[in-house]
Write a structure and sequence with these properties.
4 strands, 34% helix, four-stranded antiparallel beta sheet, alpha+beta, single chain, globular
Length: 70
């Protein structure tokens, strides 16, 4: 599956995400079971879609790193 390495830097996540074709999935690297996941099918959603799983990952799993897959 095409994707990018995990990061907790929103600017780096956005830059990396834009190298992949839509739709993309943002997933908390530490998570499981669907918590901390966001589907992006429009670039205008990207910034908000990054913030939510960063918060989810930190509160639920103790880590805010995200993985981006296409």
């Amino acid at each position: 599956v095409p994707g990018v390495e995990a990061s907790d830097d929103p600017a780096a996540i956005e830059k990396a995400a834009r190298t992949l074709p839509l739709p993309i999935l943002l997933k908390a690297a530490s998570g499981g079971g669907g918590k901390g996941m966001r589907l992006v099918d429009d670039w205008t959603q990207l910034s908000d879609a990054i913030d939510a799983p960063l918060r989810d990952g930190l509160s639920a799993f103790g880590g805010s790193r995200l993985v981006v897959v296409s």
